[in-house]
């Protein structure tokens, strides 16, 4: 499992101009079953995405395809972790050491 932390590197007006494309990109990843939660940080200086996957390289490639990254308005910090404990709703994503 991965935590993808977005940090804006451009003013919010540039971020907002790309929001429609970013949301379409998010929606495609939800449909593909890769993303399971996402949202804005508070204060609004970026966002957070919870993603599932076995291949860090693939998650990095996916993050690089975000319209925010392609257009230079955000940078990603990706943290991989092993989700050994979850709520019942997330039981399908539990991992074992």
Characterise the protein shown here.
The protein is of the alpha+beta class and 97 residues long. It has four helices and four strands; from the N terminus they run E-H-H-E-E-H-H-E. A four-stranded antiparallel β-sheet has the order 2-3-1-4, with helices on one face. The mean pLDDT is 97.
Instruction: Specify the number of helices.
Output: 4
In terms of DSSP E residues, the strand content is 25-35%
Major beta-sheet overview: 4 strands, antiparallel
Q: Structural class of the secondary elements?
A: alpha+beta
| Distance separating the two termini | 13 Å
Q: Give Rg in angstroms.
A: 14 Å
Helix content percent band: 25-40%
Oligomeric state of the chains in view: single chain
Number of strands: 4
In what order do the strands lie side by side in the largest sheet? Answer: 2-3-1-4
The pLDDT mean sits at: 97
Explain the layout of strands and helices.
Elements: E1 2-8, H1 12-17, H2 19-31, E2 35-40, E3 46-51, H3 56-64, H4 67-70, E4 74-80
Antiparallel strand pairs: 1-3, 1-4, 2-3
Characteristic terms for this protein:
single chain; alpha+beta; elongated
Summarize the structure.
With 97 residues, the chain is an alpha+beta fold. The chain contains four helices and four strands, in the order βααββααβ. A hairpin with a 5-residue loop joins strand 2 (35-40) and strand 3 (46-51).
């Amino acid at each position: 499992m991965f935590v993808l932390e977005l940090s804006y590197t451009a003013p919010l007006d540039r971020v907002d101009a790309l929001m429609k494309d970013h949301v379409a990109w998010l929606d495609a990843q939800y449909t593909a079953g890769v993303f399971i939660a996402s949202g804005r940080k508070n204060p609004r200086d970026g966002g957070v995405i919870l993603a599932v996957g076995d291949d860090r390289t693939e998650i990095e490639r996916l993050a690089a395809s975000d319209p925010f990254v392609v257009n230079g308005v955000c940078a990603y910090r990706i943290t991989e972790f092993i989700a050994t404990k979850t709520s019942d709703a997330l039981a399908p994503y539990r991992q074992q050491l």
